[in-house]
Every structure is written in structure tokens, then in C-alpha cells.
Amino acid sequence: MLVDVRAEGRKLVTLPVVPLSMLATFVVTVALAGIASWSMAGLLDDAGAGMDFSPEDEGFQSVHFGQAGMVVLGVLAVGGEFAGNQVRTSLLAMPGRLRFLAAKAAVVALLAALTASVTVPLAFTASQIALGEYGMSLSTALDAGVLTPMAGAVLYWVLLALLAAGCTVLARNTVAPLAVLVALVLALSQILSMVTDLGGLLPDQAGSLLYLTDKENAFGLDAPQGGAVMAAWVAVVWLLAAVRFVRRDA
Amino acid sequence: MSPEDDTPTVHHGPMRRWGPGNDDESMIEIRGLTKRFGAHTAVDDLSFTAAAGQVTGFLGPNGAGKSTTLRMLLGLDRIDAGTATVTGVPYTSLRRPGTVVGAQLDVGGAHPAHTARAHLAWIARANGLPLTRVDEVLERVDLTRAARARVRTFSLGMGQRLNLAAALLGDPRVVVMDEPVNGLDPAGIRWMRSFTRGLADEGRTVLLSSHLMDEIARIADHLVVIDGGRSVAQGTPERLTDGHDSLEDAFFALTSEVRGGVS
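YS: structure for the whole thing
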């Protein structure tokens, strides 16, 4: 299994678009955190004390936009198999189809965890620095227990990358899962949640409870429950993907 | 620059590492193999073997079921009935398949954005092979100069040779080739022919599919001819060609007989 994971890892990191998507996720998320929080500081200057504002949630705002990078990573990691029929070579090298899928999922999770554990803390820090006097200092942030939602945000990104990868195994192409999932996480799930309470059970709506501590949820889920709902989505998608992938001709 | 300049890298001669006497399992065995796509039977109760140290030519027109047979043998397509084994076991049960069976399938199989070296490197890793093998096989198929080039820039012939390099990474004793001379120019065909012969002369089992009858008849020791998913003839090229001007003539005589007989 370790041999398979290493082979998958080498396959993906030597594909220029994969490290590029990780780097772009990092740069865009941290830059966005700085710019958004800097302009928020300007708003706070104008509005005075009258505004309802949490510097902690502000520190995670860019994580919300940067998550699109995890969708891209997950989709490309699997979608690459269907470019040039690479999947044929993969199955010749690893004829155990479940083993191949497990190695793929492991590498996607590892790459997402790596990206997230660098990006999330630095984006949060950039945000607090840009907020200036409205931001949290390191000690107040630690006192406020900010490490827990940070770990939650990293976990959320990993789950999202896995969800995207699983959907791509099912779809067997890149365009459809990329379009649907980016639209979902950036806008659609928000809109659906306003239309129906059930929207609160969408994977990203439930999963984002892992790091947005003040977020309202129609089902009153707490952070671990929200994470569990998202993990269930990931598990179901991968189960369907595995059944389909094992049964059909390559 | 032309491919045949470096043909000395093909090892001819008596270097028999896996001769028939050394290992009587080193062969391919197809028994009653059947594949259906809906109502259409693509491969119909097909049986044949490929012996060690021989080039077995697997011939038939396009759509005869050659690729489907090879894909079932290699675990890519599901088998509806019968068995297909390499060295006595199904391909999918091999732990590091690349070290036992090398498969060069038709064009494709590599991500267009990978370099030749990166493509071979992950395959080597998946088979537990050292990365030094990558440069060795690139040299053996004359792709050393293209090692850092992206696969999307490759010509058809280079793509075929890249797939051949991938097949040889694990120094396998069984080599399966699907239409290896498809789309190659005469120099490329000549190179591939001599290369394939060299593989068998080293004692490897070579199973080679093609719709180009006479190209294959020149290098094969044994022929399996199929049409409509069924075996129509098996034997040495000499025996199958006997009484006809070429293998192709013999094939058309054979298949028209079969078709006449069936319908």
C-alpha cells in the first residue's frame, strides 16, 4: 500500500498543474485575507463601534474563498487519469482497483492537508495583521482557542478535496465536477440554505461549522456534528465511486 | 536520428534467460474466453496459448476482438466467461505485475502534461523498481533525447516507443503488444519488428496483435488468427500460408470459409 501511495504521489506532483493549484491556493487565500481584512479595517474606522464584528470569523473569511482551490486540486488529481487514458496505465501497474482508489484518496488527502496546514494559519495571521487595531494579537488569539477552528478549517479543506476527487471518479471527467462543486461551495449552497433548511445539510454548509464558530445552522449542529455530516457525504460519494469503478471496464 | 540507427541496443542471439525449459509456466493461456457487449459477442469461446521464447502473432481484422481479448487478459475488461492467465495466474492477482508482464497497448496511456521520464518514474515506483530503470528503458527504445519532453509533443511512433519502454521497465518475461506497428512509417515498422524479435530471442514470451498479417508473419513463430471473436486458425506461419501467395490471401480464404460455414 505504501508503494502505491508513493507512486501516486510521484505521479501527481510531477504533473505541473497539481503543485501549481496548491501554490495558487496558498497565494490567493493569504493575499485575499490581507486585502479583505484591510478594507474591513477601513469600514470599521468609518462605522465606529456600532458594527457587529468578530475578528476570529474575519480571520477565516478567506478560507471560505480559498476552498475553491481544494475543489480544483481534488478534481485535477483524479481528472488527470482520464486525460490521455492514463487510467489504463494506472490499472496495469495497480490491478487492484480498490487499492488504486485508496492510494489516490490518500495522496489527495495528504496534498490537501499540506496545503491547508500552511495556508489556513498564515491567512488567519495576515488577516489579523491587516485588521490593525481591530485584529487579535497572538496571545489573545491563542487564549480565545483559535487553534481548534484552525484545525477544523484544515480538516474541512481535506474533506472537500476528497469530496471533489470522489465526484470526479464517479463523473470520469474534469469539467462537470469542477463546475458543479465550485459553484456549490462559492454561492449555490448559500442560496439553497436560504431557500430550504435542508441546505444546512449540504457538505460545505455542514462542514464549514468546523471553523465558523458563530455560524447558524438550521439543525443546530455543533462543529463535530457538522464535520460528521460532511464526512458522511464524502464516504457515500466514495462508496458509489468505488462500486462503479470496480465493476466497469476500464 | 532515424530509429534504426541504434538497433544494436536490441539484443539478438542466444541470451535465453527464460527459455521454455527453464520455466514452463512462463506463458499465456486463454481458455474459453468470452466477452459480450449487450447482444453483441465480441470474443466468443476463444482458446489459445503463447509459449515462452516465441513471438505469437495474434491476427485478425479490425473489430475481430483482439484488443478486447488482450484487455481481458490484462484485467482491464471484465471477463464474461472462461479464463485468461499469465504464468499460470490471472493478471489481477499479480502483486507487482510490471515485473512479470509488460503491456504495450495502443496509443495513449500517459498524461499529456507528464514528461516521458516522469511518466515512467511513477510506473517504476508502483512496481517497486529503482528509478535507474527509467533511463535504461528510455535508452533501450531510443527515447533518451526525449526524456524531458512532454508526452503531448510526441509523435505517434514516439508514443508507441514510450509505451514499449513502460512495458519493459520491470524486465518482464512476458510481453503483450497491441498493434505495435500501427501508424508507424517503414523505418519505425522495421525497428519495431527487429525489437520484437529480439525480445523473444531473449527467451521472453511475446504476444503481439495486429491486423497487418504479412508484417507479423515475418517475425512470428506461431499465429493465432481470429475473426468475429472466434479462432479461425492456429499454427506456424508456414503452415497457415501453405498454398497461398501470402498470409493475407490465406486469411481471406480462411475467413470466407468460416463465414460461409456459419451463415
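YS: worth flagging: Chain A touches chain B at residues 3-4, 6-8, 10-11, 14-17, 80, 83-86, 88-96, 247-250 (CB under 8 Å).
IM: good catch. Also The longest helix of chain A spans residues 97-131.
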